[in-house]
Amino acid sequence: MRKREYKVYDTDTYEQTTVIAKDLKEAKEKAKEWLTSGEFGDGTHTVWLHGRVEGPDGTAYITIKVDPEEPNCVDELGHDWQRPHSLLGGLKENPGVWGTSKGVSITEVCSRCGVYRTTETDHNTHEDIVSYREPDEELLIRRVEDYSSSPCPTTATTSSWCGAGAPAGAAKSGETRGEGSEMALTREYIHYATGFDNGDLFTSEEQVREYFSVSNIEAMFGSCPFTQEQLDEMAEEVIRHGWHMERRPLWCAYCGTRFELEADELERAIGPGTSDPSEWTPQAVAEFLRERFGHTCGE
What we know:
27% helix
């Protein structure tokens, strides 16, 4: 097939070039190589590149997302991104999330190394901006390192969060946590601490809160190593994610609207082998809500 000439435009910088390709599809691929060959951004946040290709068989538009390199984690398992209210603030049912003029800002912290990750959403373009920030205080590092996502550690003498049947050194009921023990609560941790997801699904938020009470934990295990405040934090984390609940919440990151689906209905909708929605990117959640509910954030 005879090669043809295509004009390529960087619509952000107004630079342009010419590529030779057999068709528009091949021209687009060459245009992507050209757009990403230059210098853009400082590597600290997501950069979106935009271009246009014009040729004898039509015009095509290009959008390329270039994310910053994710910092290495001190743990060989990699980052475990969490949103503990005690560190990030915001609403207890949706911690670390703040409204902006374009959408929302979502901040997470790695429970293993303390690195921050922030995602800025844009409800107009849906072009999320991701950035990372190193722990800025030694105190923060100590607080987050306690937040191990592994099961109750057998060396829990330095942590007041070991759960039912905790080894010697774990906090007793009524004791308060020290400044260095505020941790991000993962499902795995709460499971090993309380066994909350061993029985029937919770049918309401009130049922979750009733389960996470000192009296209930004592009735099940004979003693309770947590304060009621600690159990309340666990309950709110379970409710926020919809873990082991008949109805699962889904939040639109662009406008903050909350949706709910029956747990089995959600499982059927996303299909087997798909990651849990709590691990999805804001854009992936928005696309699912658009397909499932017709939600378009007012577009």
